[in-house]
């Protein structure tokens, strides 16, 4: 899977009925990206968790936290980030999920977002902060074309709701050392589900 178009910081990875998937570089300045990263790393309500895999309980290889946009205790940095995202994507986001990849050992396996936890046909937007990590995007059915996308600090990745039906995405572990990265995911969840996040 190759990018169809790259112009003025916009890279269209998928632009047909299976997408869209679009990458926007340099949405915020490096200085602002660092300030937001430092604030979220220090202030985020970070948790470790575990899940059953292959009939045993294993630790999830990253930290995470979630916020409802309507929550009055939503950190101010996330309100600022939401305002920037809405300048690029006109969507009524009501849920913000964060993942912290502490080093090269943290990862997320190839997956698609669970559609029953999303409002139909609303996109997902990821804001990247901190170290650059590679996202692998692969089509589910043949031809199983694959793109490796470098998610840089201050960038946005937009994935259309329909893309979850056709593509998996993941952040693989690395062999070489890398600093921490925070992924800030903006979603529209059904009303009752958004209250839990």
UniProtKB/TrEMBL annotation:
* Domain Fe2OG dioxygenase: residue ranges: 92-190
Which range is the signal sequence, renumbered to this chain? none
Task: Tell me which InterPro entries the record gives.
Answer: AlkB-like (IPR027450), AlkB-like_sf (IPR037151), ALKBH3 (IPR032854), Oxoglu/Fe-dep_dioxygenase_dom (IPR005123)
Question: What Pfam families does the record point to?
Answer: 2OG-FeII_Oxy_2
Could you tell me which PANTHER family the record lists for this protein? ALPHA-KETOGLUTARATE-DEPENDENT DIOXYGENASE ALKB HOMOLOG 3
Question: In its UniProt entry, what is this protein called?
Answer: Fe2OG dioxygenase domain-containing protein
Organism per entry: Dyella acidisoli
Q: What is the lineage of its organism?
A: Bacteria, Pseudomonadati, Pseudomonadota, Gammaproteobacteria, Lysobacterales
């Amino acid at each position: 899977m190759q990018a169809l178009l790259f112009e003025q910081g916009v890279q269209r990875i998928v632009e047909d009925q299976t997408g869209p998937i679009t990458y926007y570089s340099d949405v915020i300045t490096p200085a602002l990206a660092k300030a937001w990263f430092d604030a979220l790393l220090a202030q985020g309500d970070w948790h470790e968790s575990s899940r059953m895999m292959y009939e045993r309980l294993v630790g999830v290889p990253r930290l995470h936290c979630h916020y409802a946009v309507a929550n009055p205790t939503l950190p101010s940095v996330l309100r600022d980030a939401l305002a920037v995202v809405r300048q690029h994507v006109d969507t009524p986001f009501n849920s913000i999920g964060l993942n912290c990849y502490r080093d090269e050992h943290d990862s997320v396996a190839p997956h698609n977002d669970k559609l029953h936890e999303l409002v139909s046909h609303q996109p997902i937007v990821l804001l990247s902060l901190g170290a650059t990590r590679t996202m692998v995007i692969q089509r589910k059915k043949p031809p199983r074309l694959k793109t490796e996308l470098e998610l840089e600090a201050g960038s946005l990745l937009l994935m259309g709701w329909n893309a979850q039906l056709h593509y998996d995405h993941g952040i693989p572990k690395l062999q070489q050392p890398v600093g921490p990265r925070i992924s800030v995911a903006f979603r529209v969840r059904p009303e009752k589900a958004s209250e839990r996040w």
